[in-house]
Amino acid sequence: MLARLELSEDEVNAIGPQITKILGFVEQLSELDTEDIEPMTTALDVDNRWRADELKPSLTNDQALQNAPARDDNCFLVPPVLGTAGAKS
């Protein structure tokens, strides 16, 4: 219901067994004792290497905009993605 997928009867018959297997695997995982396991962001033992946030020379505004197909003083102009501003649905 949440995904609101429109599937044909053939698609339901093809995907049904796959979903059943996936849910069975998830059920197996829920049976694991994770009481003393610390949450992780990755399965690999890696450390992020963060560089210092230092101010460095960059492009001027004019340099950044010089090849823009459309610009307005200090900004790139792009076509609207979600309709026009102020448009009513």
UniProtKB/TrEMBL annotation:
GO function terms (MF aspect): asparaginyl-tRNA synthase (glutamine-hydrolyzing) activity; ATP binding; glutaminyl-tRNA synthase (glutamine-hydrolyzing) activity; transferase activity
Cross-referenced InterPro entries: Asp/Glu-ADT_sf_sub_c, GatC
Keyword Manganese: no
UniProt enzyme class: ligase
A Pfam entry, by short name: GatC
Reactions catalysed, as given in the entry: L-aspartyl-tRNA(Asn) + L-glutamine + ATP + H2O = L-asparaginyl-tRNA(Asn) + L-glutamate + ADP + phosphate + 2 H(+); L-glutamyl-tRNA(Gln) + L-glutamine + ATP + H2O = L-glutaminyl-tRNA(Gln) + L-glutamate + ADP + phosphate + H(+)
Classification via HAMAP family: GatC
PANTHER family named in the record: GLUTAMYL-TRNA(GLN) AMIDOTRANSFERASE SUBUNIT C, MITOCHONDRIAL (PTHR15004:SF0)
Record note on quaternary structure: Heterotrimer of A, B and C subunits.
Protein family according to the UniProt entry: Belongs to the GatC family.
Protein's name according to its UniProt entry: Aspartyl/glutamyl-tRNA(Asn/Gln) amidotransferase subunit C
Gene: gatC
